[in-house]
Design brief:
The complex is a heterodimer of chains A (395) and B (110). Chain A has seven helices and twelve strands. Chain A is α+β, with helices and mostly antiparallel strands and 395 residues long. In chain A, strands 2-1-5-4-3 form a five-stranded antiparallel beta sheet, covered by helices on one side. In chain A, strands 7-9-10-12-11 form a five-stranded mixed beta sheet, with helices on one face. Chain A has a two-stranded antiparallel ribbon with strand order 6-8. In chain A, α5 packs parallel to α6. Helices cover 66% and strands 0% of the residues of chain B. Chain B is built from six helices and no strands. Chain B has helices at 2-17, 20-29, 36-47, 50-62, 73-79, 89-103. In chain B, α2 (20-29) crosses α6 (89-103). The longest helix of chain B is centred in the N-terminal third of the chain and has 16 residues, at 2-17. Classes of the chains: A alpha+beta (395), B mainly alpha (110). Chain A binds chain B through residues 73, 76-77, 80-82, 94-96, 98, 100-101, 130-136, and chain B through 37, 41, 44-53, 105-106, 108-110.
């Protein structure tokens, strides 16, 4: 079966976004660590290379200074001026690491290393065989101009950014591969629903029309009950059918927005759902003020139908549904099973069902969310497991 | 008689006013061609640090030997090896400490 992309499936679901976000976070973190490690190794190797180049020069300076110390030792104490050189600074330490004399700018000396970089200087530590003036360690210091470091950072930033960019391109490719099976399955489901819903319209309309036309007054009680059950079943299928056709076909139709008085619409829908509610002994508690909304009526009814249908479906037997209409706000509360707080953000995902014992495809709230977003309305859900759910719609 | 007493007191006080280094080292070394300063430099050249120099010097004074002397062959051939020090440990240590303080290089370079 071929799978084509549709407008419906183009947008990412919340669960898809979450998976994609997790994958990309992990990927970016790993790539960053990898690049940083490579940069650290590169920096270290370049530093070693620079020190190796400096080592020859500093070794020569140390040799010169040793000869000068030898002369000073010979003539000490008649001569007591420590030999200076404009090319470098130096210091002498005895075998017990006591400073004999120093001209260093940076006095932090690491006697364990032969050559190293301090803050802004390069130190070369030479261990003498003959201790002129008691000198065991001769330290030569030159200023580190930092040019090599600037060069290295330029390389690291340049190559690092290129590598990061390439890794990101590769990462997006991987992410696409990663999400493909998930999206394919959603598209297959969409196509299947689209194909099957076409076939449902005619028989469903016939059933509902004939139920409405039947005269229940002349029926015996037994048959009237049976007809009520048929009516409930047909209406349930009808809601599902409307949702599915909306999802697959109608939502691409142009909106016919108009000013709607909400109260009569709600009363009409309560009457429509009354037969379903009565089957579970659920009572409606209405508190309706006059309020208007500018919206496509078809879409508004989808919102109301889905919220009411859920309130009945997930309510307990003998429960209540409270509908409160105020200006710019509609609240529908049930006394049903409720839902845990961590699942609430995923409620609007298509095909997401938290209670498998109830029927449905899990498309209702996804339709509600789409319409709510389209008209810049707000929807809030408060729920407590075992106590019920409250949906607040604001516009 | 009074003159003799004054002379004796002056001599005694002169001797006791000297420190352990002056009393026990300087007198004998006066007769040698190499100064105590030069000898100190030889110790520095060999032992480097304060503790090392003091330990090496003390060992040599207690157990003088040609093999551990800092002086040249020529010097030893002409003047020989010194006799073993008869000073007690406290006085020997004091003399060495004074010797170090007098000739150490620290704070003398500029």
């Amino acid at each position: 079966m071929s799978v084509s992309k549709s407008k419906v499936t183009n947008s990412l679901l919340k669960s898809e976004k979450k998976s994609l976000f997790r994958f990309l976070t992990l990927y970016v973190a790993m790539v960053s660590i990898l690049i940083m490690l490579l940069a650290a190794f590169y920096h270290q190797s370049q530093e070693k290379l620079m020190l190796a180049e400096q080592r020859a020069t500093l070794s020569k300076y140390a040799y010169i200074q040793t000869k000068r110390l030898k002369i000073l030792h010979h003539f000490f104490p008649e001569r007591n001026t420590y030999p200076r050189d404009p090319r470098f600074r130096s210091a002498i330490y005895d075998i017990e690491f006591m400073k004999i004399f120093s001209l260093l700018e940076d006095e932090h000396i690491n006697f364990d290393k032969e050559i190293y970089i301090t803050n802004k200087y390069i130190h070369f530590v030479k261990s003498l065989d003959e201790y002129y003036l008691g000198t065991k360690y001769l330290i030569i210091e030159v200023k580190d101009d930092g040019v090599w470091r600037t060069e290295i950072w330029k390389h690291i930033m340049g190559y690092g950014l290129i590598a990061f960019f390439l890794f990101m391109v590769f990462g997006l490719f991987l992410a696409k591969l990663f999400l493909k099976p998930m999206r394919d399955s959603i598209m297959l489901l969409d196509r299947f629903i689209k194909d099957t819903t076409h076939e449902l319209n005619t028989p469903l309309s016939a059933i509902l029309a004939n139920i409405e036309m039947m005269d229940t007054d002349v029926m015996v009680e037994k048959n009237r009950k049976k007809l009520t059950r048929i009516n409930i079943a047909a209406k349930t299928v009808s809601i599902l059918y409307k949702d599915l056709t909306y999802l697959t076909l109608e939502q691409e139709r142009k909106n016919e927005d108009e000013e709607i008085a909400i109260k009569p619409v709600l009363e009409n829908r309560v009457e429509y759902f009354n037969i379903l509610a009565r089957s579970k002994n659920i009572t409606f508690v209405l508190s309706l003020q006059n309020a208007n909304i500018f919206i496509d009526k078809r879409k508004f009814i989808r919102i109301i139908d889905n919220l009411m249908s859920n309130a009945i479906k997930y309510n307990k037997r003998g429960g209540t549904i409270e509908i409160v209409l105020e200006e710019n706000m509609l609240t529908i509360s049930d006394t049903g099973i409720g839902i845990s707080e961590e699942k609430i953000p995923f409620m609007f995902d298509r095909y997401m069902r938290f209670n498998k014992s109830e029927g449905g495809f899990g498309v209702g709230l996804s339709i509600v969310k789409k319409i709510v977003d389209e008209y810049n309305m707000q929807i809030e859900i408060e729920s407590k497991e075992g106590e019920g759910t409250k949906v607040v719609l604001k516009w | 008689m009074v003159k003799k007493v004054v002379l004796f007191i002056a001599l005694i006080s002169g001797v006791f006013s000297q420190d352990a280094y002056e009393r026990n080292c300087v007198e004998c070394h006066k007769e040698l061609p190499t100064s105590l300063q030069q000898m100190f430099k030889k110790y520095l050249l060999l032992y480097s640090g304060e503790e090392n120099v003091k330990a090496g010097l003390k060992h040599y004074l207690l157990y003088p030997s040609k093999s551990i002397s800092v002086m040249s062959e020529l010097f030893i051939d002409n003047y020989g090896i010194k006799k073993k020090s008869m000073l007690n440990d406290e006085e020997l240590t004091e003399a060495i400490n004074i010797y170090w303080e007098k000739f150490k290089v620290f704070d003398k370079l500029k």
